[in-house]
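Protein modeling request. Please complete all fields; requests missing the sequence field cannot be processed.
Requester role: graduate student
Desired output: 3D structure, token encoding
Chains: 1
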Amino acid sequence: MNSLKLLLICSVFSSIAYAAPPLTLPQAIDYALENNPELSIMQARINQAQDQLGLAMANYYPQIKAGIAYQHSNNPAEAFAMIIAQRRLDFGGTDFNHPGGVDNFREQISATYSLYRGGQDSHQAQAAELGMAASELDQAAVKNRLLSHITAAYYAQLAAVDAQQVSESSVTAVQSELTQSQTRFAAGTVLKSDVLSLQVQLAEAKEAQIQAANAVEMANTMLKTLLGMSANEPLAIKETLAQALPKNPPKFDALLTQALAQHPELQAAAKRVAIAEQQLAAAKGAYLPRADAYASYGFNNRSPDFDTDRDNVSVGVQVEVDVFNGFATQAKVKKAGHELTAAQEALRQQRLQIENAVKSAQLRLQEALNRADVAAVSVQAAEEALRLVNEQRQAGVVTVTRYIEAEVARDKAHTRQISARFDALRAEAELKQATGGF
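Delivered output (438 residues):
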């Protein structure tokens, strides 16, 4: 039994020793950049784009193949050609009409090189390069959104913790007043209705406390998801919302200019327009002739042996053009043209969305800052009002109903102040995301 207790104590101390320390916002962001799976997905897509570029660049290199083939035939034309290729033609001993079955092993190495394909290779390579750049911008866009969401979730948890503290203070205050009122009721100095009113107020305060505690857990779970942590992993944050409020946002035109210059989603959309242009040019290149050079070196034997006396070389150049392929090239050009139109409209839509996001975030930040100013004044007034009412209550001048009203007004003022402060910090993060600032 003692050994079991010792084991449990060691386990507890070990868990305390290795518990993760509370995270600041910059530390939470760094953790997410290393562990969030969405960023890993985007990195895989960048790698795919790099591989696609490698495929496009392969067309600039010669294609070299080595192989061996076996053929048996008693067809006079084929058999005669095999005998000649094997360099063993005997005009006196060969029956050209009945050569019999002939075996032919062909070992060869061949190479082909594309001399010209109407510019298709060049356009495809440029499209692949642009695709890799677009993938990197997509990753930056995901990072931009992720950091904004982490910042908002971080402040949401801080706000929930502060709201929970307010609710706990409210429960403590109402419980204290209820205890005093019950004592006075027993002494016959207060009414039963006053005690009942405080009991109702205490039940409401405890309900708000339960909701606040649940809000803390939900905010913590959301933050864990963004950080790439499982729901069972411990997570603590240590900052408070006592930090300074954001400054008033700049003018809309300045913010929009900044967003259009650096927002990764807009830049990625512009890259996709350029990609579509290159793909359209590549599709049109199929109308032009294609030229390829080729060479092959090999051996023809009755058995799979390498005999340099029977080697042969073939070299040449081939030029061809599609005269009619069932309108396939025309269909590909039309398809690429439609894809270009879609990319251009997507770019225009992205710009409109960014304009709206910048304007909305600017307005929300300004509104939240104004609300925070009003809420600060309201808290001071509510605190002072509660103090005066409490003094009057102790003197028996006002009823418990008036005290409850002052208590509720004070709690609501604190809640509004917390909400306004959180909304301001979240709006600042949203504005930073809208301008591509992350």
